[in-house]
Amino acid sequence: MRLSTAPPGLEAPPTTDEQTQEKPAVPTQFATQPEERIQRSLFGEILDWMLVPLLLLWPISIAITYLVAKSIANQPFDRALDDRVTVLAQQVKEKNGKLVLQLPNSARDVLRADDVDSIYFQVLGPLGEQIDGDRDIPVPTDEEKPPFWTTQFRYDTIRNTEVRVAYMYIDLRKARAEHETLSASGVGLVQVAETLDKRVQLANQIVKGVILPEFIILPVALALVWFALSRGLSPLVELQQRIRSRPPGDLSPIDSGQVPEEISPLVRSLNEMLERLSLSIEMQKRFIADAAHQMKTPLAGMRMQSELALRQTSQEEIHLSLVQLAKSSETATRLVNQLLALARAENQTSESNSFAPVELTELARNVVQGWVQTSFTRQIDLGFEQPGHPIMVRGNPTMLREMLNNLIDNALRYTPPGGSVTVRVHADGEERHAILEVEDTGQGIPAAERAHVFERFYRILGSNTEGSGLGLSIVREIAQQHGADIDIFNNPRSHDQKFPGSLFRISLRMKRSSPFMEDIG
Question: Is the full-model pTM beyond 0.70?
Answer without folding.
Answer: no
